[in-house]
Amino acid sequence: MEYVLPVVIPFCIGFLLALALYPLRKKLEKWLHVKREIAGFFALFFGLCIAVMILCGIMALLVIGGRYAGKSGLPELLFSQGRIVWNTCCDRLHTWTGQWVMDPSDYGVVVDMIQRRSFRFDADAFMNNWRNVSVQTLRFLANGLVAIVSGLLMLCEFDELKQWIHRMVGRLFHAGFGITMKTVGFTWVKAQLIIIGTITGICVTGLLIARERYWLLTGILIGICDALPFLGTGICFLPWSLWRMINGRYITALWFLALYVITSLARQSLEPRLIGKKIGVPPLAVLFSVYVGIKVYTKWGFLLGPVSAFLIWQLYSEEVAEEDRDESDETAVGEDDLL
Predict the structure, then answer these.
(1) pLDDT by residue (tens digit) across 166-188?
(2) Which residues, in sequence order, are CB contacts of 196 under 8 Å at separation 6+?
(3) How far apart, in Å, are the Cα atoms of 105 and each of 6, 101, 116, 212, 219?
(4) How far, in Å, CA of 167 to CA of 164, rounded?
(5) Considering only CA atoms, which of 334, 320, 328 is closest in space to residue 174?
(6) What is the end-to-end Cα distance of the chain in Å, rounded?
(7) How many CB atoms lie within 10 A of CB 272?
(8) Alpha helices in the chain (DSSP H)
(9) CA proximity to 222, closest of 203, 201, 208
(10) Other CB atoms closer than 10 Å to residue 49's CB: what's the count?
(11) CB atoms within 10 A of CB 128
């Protein structure tokens, strides 16, 4: 997964292109009475044109929206709101420390510095990094070309590709392996739903106790954030707690911090127990696989770690070995009958 998956990503994108454009290829092949290679080429051409048009439309909407925001005075409004936040932070720090850590008059200087760094084109820095930029650009173009070409080839041979995938899936998910995969998959989905429901309930109850406006909607949204990778409840509760502390609402800030700790502990304790108990694996082993997965795969380790551990366990499990031996014995008996 660590080394092969990044290599085959362009082919996965090509397969998705072929899967999306296959109905169009069949219609063009039927309407134009041409070979499937020609119909596949036209289908891919039309699909890429539609994708380019959608991207151009999104960019046009962004440009129009930016111009409208500039004419309506949105930058000035953001500038004034930012000054209010800056002054509030400076006042709180002065109250805590007894001295001006940040001068309120420095806000304009900071904004000017951010604008210069954001909108200034540094030719020297660009020339110094031209090699890295060129390599990344060429890599992106090469991967895009491989995805398009592989998509065209898969689109032309999609009927045979479907049969081959069906045959390989049938050989891969044999009796023992398939049953275990279904059990583990169902268990994982059920466990995630229980965890999401529990954390959402904790968030809703906590916000209701804090007497926050829109406590129900906010709690549900925070629960959804916890279910998404790389987000979690911390992306909502930690900045919220910091902002309440700056505004002097220390009890609410500590309460939001406590909610973050409670939801984090709830996920870390429920996930190994719900998954490990159902599939017959100790919770410590599930937690260990998640930890090792994060160390090995970094970003997607929380998902790829348990998947890798499950595949390794299946490859070396005694049930699969016995099933393979039974299949070998049946094959040997069939060959003896032929002889």
Answers:
(1) 777 665 555 556 566 666 667 77
(2) 223, 224, 226, 227
(3) 49, 12, 18, 33, 38
(4) 5
(5) 320
(6) 43
(7) 22
(8) 4-32, 36-71, 74-97, 107-119, 123-128, 130-156, 158-172, 175-209, 215-227, 234-246, 250-279, 283-297, 301-316, 318-338
(9) 203
(10) 10
(11) 10
Structure tokens at 310: 């499950």
Q: Map tokens 């292109």 to a residue.
A: 17
- The helix-helix angle for 318-338 and 175-209 (nearest 10°) equals 150
Residue found by looking up tokens 């409840």 in the block? 233
Residue holding tokens 């500590």?
Answer: 254
The SS3 assignment for 28 reads helix
Dist CA 200 CA 207 (whole Å): 11
- The SS3 of residue 89 is helix
Domain boundaries, the chain: 4-171, 173-330
Taking the C-alpha atoms of residue 236 and residue 338, their distance in angstroms, rounded to an integer, is: 69
Length of the chain: 339
Q: Which amino acid is at 256?
A: F
Q: Which residues of the chain have pLDDT under 70?
A: 1-3, 94, 97-107, 111, 113-131, 133, 169-185, 229-231, 275-287, 299-300, 302, 314-339
Amino acid in position 228: L
291: Cα separation from own chain's centroid = 18
Give, as one character, the DSSP assignment of residue 122: -
